[in-house]
Structure formats: structure tokens, C-alpha cells
Design a protein that fits this description.
By secondary structure, the chain is α/β, with parallel strands linked by helices. The protein has a single domain, classed as 3-Layer(aba) Sandwich (Rossmann fold). It is 38% helix and 16% strand. The chain has five helices and six strands, in the order E-H-E-E-H-E-H-H-E-H-E. It has helices spanning 13-24, 56-66, 80-85, 87-107, 141-159, and strands at 4-8, 28-33, 47-50, 70-73, 112-116, 163-167. Helix 2 (56-66) packs parallel to helix 4 (87-107) and helix 4 (87-107) runs parallel beside helix 5.
Length: 182
């Protein structure tokens, strides 16, 4: 599929807005979501594949078949309080499943990765405003998992023909200017 971008968590709040932006720039988003927190209605005119990143063979099959030019990774659990109560679930879902996705990307020659990280990687800031090069000192399992993936990505880039960027937002809020979502 020409200009295909694989978007995990593309039926969620941030992912669905990214899908719309991709479509607006002439790309063909391919949404992959388990719909645990995403919404089927948020995937408007794009293909939705319902699946979980824990199903490594399914992810491998999709990437092999569709041959996306990039992956945008928004699929994650994101409630800080819940991460403190269920760290094992958060590390499995946010870290191990991301590693599964990265393995599938490398196996299938996908070289570009956009990672939905979080400002939670900073922890308690030393000063405000927080510069991008602030030390990563997370104070909860959610932030720790995001920081771990960011550190891992540096090594993947160094060892492979692979490029990435991490997006560290604070509180994502707002609505689609055209009234579609949000």
C-alpha cells in the first residue's frame, strides 16, 4: 500500500486525530487497535484492524502484508493511578508490547517510528518550564515504562537502520476544528 502508515491505538483520542492529519497529508492510515479504550466510530474513513500488540504473529502478518512506510505508536494504557496499582499490567502492555512491535518493524523493514511518550518521563521537574533535555526521572510505573521505551529506542537506532522520534505531551486536550471528534 503506497504511503501506508500503521497507526497503533488509532481509534483512541490522540491516535484518531493523528489519523485524520495523516489522511489530510495524502497518507493512507492503517489503524490497529484492540478497542479496549478506543472507539470504532473514531475510525472514520480508514481501515481498522482490530487486534492486540500482544499477538506478535498477527502484527508480523499485517506489517508483512501492508508494508507501511512508518509506524505511529499510540497504543498504551495511560492512567497514572492505575499504573501504581497494576504495574505488571502497565509494563506488559506499554513496554513488552512496544518491544513486540519494534521486533515486527525490524523484521519487515519498517524504518520510521513515532512514539507517543509522555511528560511523565520527567517526574518532578527540577525547574519550570521543563526543557526537553531535562533528566528522565519518572515517579510512577506509567512514566517508567515510557522512559524505558525511549531509552530502548536510542539503542535500536544505533544498532539498526532505524529512525524515531518521541512525543512527550503533558495533557492532550481539545477538539477537531471541524467537529468530528474531541
Amino acid at each position: 500500500m503506497d504511503k501506508c502508515v500503521f497507526v497503533t491505538g488509532g481509534a483512541g483520542y490522540i491516535g484518531s486525530h493523528a489519523v485524520k492529519a495523516l489522511r489530510g497529508k495524502g497518507h493512507q492510515p492503517l489503524v490497529y487497535d484492540n478497542l479496549s479504550t478506543g472507539h470504532q466510530w473514531a475510525v472514520r474513513n480508514d481501515e481498522l484492524i482490530e487486534g492486540d500488540l500482544g499477538d506478535t504473529s498477527h502484527v508480523q502478518q499485517i506489517l508483512h502484508k501492508e508494508k507501511p512506510i512508518a509506524v505511529m505508536h499510540f497504543a498504551a494504557s495511560s492512567l497514572v493511578g492505575e499504573s501504581v496499582e497494576q504495574p505488571e499490567f502497565y509494563f506488559r502492555n506499554n513496554v513488552i508490547n512496544t518491544l513486540n512491535l519494534l521486533e515486527a518493524m525490524l523484521t519487515n523493514g519498517v524504518k520510521y517510528f513515532i512514539f507517543s511518550s509522555s511528560a511523565a518521563v520527567y517526574g518532578n521537574p527540577h525547574h519550570v518550564p521543563i526543557p526537553e533535555d531535562h533528566p528522565l526521572e519518572p515517579v510512577n510505573p506509567y512514566g517508567e515504562g515510557k522512559a524505558f521505551v525511549e531509552k530502548t529506542l536510542r539503542w535500536y537506532e544505533e544498532a539498526n537502520d532505524f529512525k524515531y522520534i518521541s512525543l512527550r505531551y503533558f495533557n492532550a486536550a481539545g477538539a477537531d476544528p471541524e467537529g468530528g471528534t474531541g
